[in-house]
Amino acid sequence: MTQPAAPAPHWHGAGSVPAMMRQVLYALLPAAAAHVFFYGPGLLVNALVATLAALATEALALRWRGQPQRLFLSDGSAVVTAVLLAFCLPPLTPWWVTVTGAVFAVGVAKHLYGGLGLNIFNPAMAGFALLLLCFPAELTAWPPPRIGDLDYRTLSIGQTLFYVFSGRLLDGLVLDAVTRATPLELAKTGLAQMHTMSEIRSNPVFGDFGGAGWEWVGNFVTLGGGWLLYRGIIRWQIPAATLAGILLPALLFWLADPETHPSPLFQLWTGGTLLAAFFIATDPVSSPVTSRGQVIYGLGCGLLTFVIRAWGSFPDGVAFAVLLMNAAVPVIDRYTRPHIYGR
Amino acid sequence: MAEPSTAAPPAAWTYDPRPRRPDWGLYAPTLKLASMGHPIRQAPLPAEAVIPLGHARGSARPLVSPGDHVLTGQPVGSDAAAAVHASITGTVVAVEPRPVPGQAAMPCVVLRRTDPEHFWPDLAAADPARLAPEEIAAHIAAGGIVGLGGALFPTAVKLQPGRAIRALVINGAECEPWISCDEMLLRERAASVIRGTRIMMRALGTQRAVIAVEADMPEARVALADRLQAEADDHIGIAVVTAKYPAGGERQLIELLTGEQVPSGGLPRDIGYVCQNAGTAAAVADLFDTGRPLISRIVTVTGGAISAPGNFEARIGTPLADLVAAAGGYSVTAQRLLMGGPMMGIALADASLPVTRATNCLVAAAAGELAPPQPELPCIRCGECVQVCPARLLPNELLGALVRGDAAALAELGLADCIECGSCDYVCPSAIALTPRFAAARAAATSGTGR
Question: Which domains occur in chain B, in start order?
Answer without folding.
Answer: 11-30+160-290 (3.40.50.11540), 296-365 (3.10.20.600), 384-449 (no CATH)
